[in-house]
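Researcher: We plan to redesign the surface later, but first we want a full-length starting point. Tokens attached.
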């Protein structure tokens, strides 16, 4: 078994092959595929992966994310007021 030194871990990144596979699993055809993925690295810093088949798809994903985040913020505000 390999000993792991938590103080000397390699910087985490999702392999391109996995991101390519995720991209292939989205959308119904070549022209409407895309994703926006938020993650946290081992050091606690967030990072974003994004890939879209076209600017229109990217805009749609971004708009959906904006609406999702706004809804989450609104819910958090309601919880705070309760």
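Model: Full-length starting sequence:
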């Amino acid at each position: 078994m390999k000993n792991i030194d938590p103080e000397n871990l390699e910087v985490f990144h999702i392999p391109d092959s996995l991101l390519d596979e995720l991209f292939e699993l989205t959308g119904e055809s070549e022209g409407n595929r895309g994703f926006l993925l938020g993650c946290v690295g081992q050091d606690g810093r967030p990072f974003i992966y994004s890939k879209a088949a076209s600017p229109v798809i990217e805009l749609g994903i971004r708009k959906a994310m904006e609406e999702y985040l706004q809804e989450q913020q609104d819910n958090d505000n309601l919880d705070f007021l309760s």
